[in-house]
Design goal:
The complex is a heterodimer. By secondary structure, chain A is mostly helical. Chain A contains 22 helices and 2 strands. Chain A has 2 domains: 487 residues, Amino acid/polyamine transporter I (Up-down Bundle), CATH 1.20.1740.10; 32 residues, no CATH class. Chain A has a two-stranded antiparallel ribbon. Chain B is 89% helix and 0% strand. Classes of the chains: A mainly alpha, B mainly alpha.
Amino acid sequence: MQKKTRANPELRRSVTPWGSFSWGYSDVGADIFVGLGLVLAAAAGASNVAFLFAGVVYVCIGLAYTELAATYPVAGGGQYFVMRGLGDIFGFIAGWAVLLDFTIDVTLFAWTSVDYSSQLLPSLTNSVHPWVHFVAVFALVAGLCLLNVIGVRESTAFNGVVSALDVLSESLILCLGFLFAFKPALLIHAMQFNWPSPYQLMLGTSLAIISFVGLESISQAAQETQRPASVIPRTSVSLILTILIFALAYSNLALGLQPWHPITDASGHHLAFWQIFTNNSDNQGKAVALLAAQVPYYGALAALYVPVLGAILLLISSNSGVFGSSRIAYAMSSSNLLPALFQGVHRRFRTPAVSIIFFSSIAVIELIFAAIPGLFPAAASFYSRFFRGENGLDFLADLYAFGAATSYSFVFLGLIGLRLTDPLSPRKFKIPLNVGMRFRGERVEFPIVAVIGFIGIFSILLFTLRTHVLGRIFGPSWLLLGLLFYLAYRRYRRLPVLQSVQRDWRNDQTEILRRSGELELMDEYLANLKASDRRRATEGSGV
Amino acid sequence: MLLIRTALSIAIVVCGAILLTEMFASIRMAGIRVLPGAVLGAAMVALGAHRLALIARVRGGRR
């Protein structure tokens, strides 16, 4: 086992602090392009409250990921933290939920990338030309799969440029929007007279969490960052706050926006800006571009380039789904949570081709299921009858919210577990609000924020199950299928089915810190271990 | 470059502080509805302060 690990080539640690920020930003930052329209359609006048609730939970998740990624800088991410904190079976469930999210990520972001492009190329509009839209999304997914198999990835430099352009552009939209188009009275009016029903608010909140998905990228960046324990906390806090500010600012601006060009419905009545998203999935898929176009003067320019920028950012995010799923599957396979087949590397290109093709195929199946109501009107009536008329975008968003809420719930539990079972690993960054206590003879710090975050994300999971008709069928089915597969695989391999495989975490941790260049932390860890062993020996001998 | 980043960070803090003040001034009229705006202001102050702390650390390191 040891030999095998050594034989694997290590990832080069060359990502700078800005590279680490832009890596996360190009993944999480794209989410608002998808989430804004969906939340405005569902939560109407309480959209900003939905983003606020999801945003507070997201800050807790972000802090948890920052601590875990800085302490355990490995690419496995949530699955690794949960496996180490709670055991193999929970690690599998968390990883499997992340895999669902990554496959949905591929389809959903390719879908919305085409939606943003349709702002400039109307022939790509889903409701008008569903087959053209379907073929375009399929071509993007297939193209990304092929690029990943042959080993072409977007470079960190390219991510950096797109992220910088996007931060600049979004800041401009928000600044000019708040300065010239924002009317506080409209916001208060929308909140007062268009407050949604509790059901709609729950739906909106569960959709708002999809604007904050992608924190796995923090741990993926950690694997390739030099001295991650120092760099990751710095970049993550900036990333978390930036994303939160954009989400809250966009939702407030959208509710209080005085459109530059008057918007009317079919009967000529004036509409508020946020009302153009109700029951209109075409508009929901390109909300930021529509909002940017309504900013006075600047909107004329923004209408030309924001759809392009949005489409590129969404495509990068879609690619991170293809790349991320193969990497997580590879990591899970290395930990005996999935068959060794998923470690299969292409002979010529040296990429995890089996994982890439397998999870891209699942993404295509999800795409077909999402596109069916648009492609076949007969099937649309079936969807309306059994699934409350949910459309393709709803289906993808349902599963995305379910996967995120499930995996994040386990990450909080994993963090609590690791604080209790691994108090000796040096933590350069700790989430605030900890209570000191003793556990199995060691002094540990119990994280209160993790408990608050768990309650928040678990309630979002319950909202998702309550309000997402497709999500509550297909999400748990995905987990159940995966679990059955896991149990059969572990039994076949004669590995502990419900228990965990014995691992030497001490050596693992030392190796992780050595590889990441955190030699001071490695020394501190070894000193902690020695002190703990000495203390236990003294206590054991009764001296 | 550091000067521009400092100016930007200060601008973020100032904007956040103005937003917070505006929100607290409107509590009587709008009640709990100011909460999303208040959190937005607080997040902007936090981001600006965090960036300023990083810049201060970089400057400290150079000296």
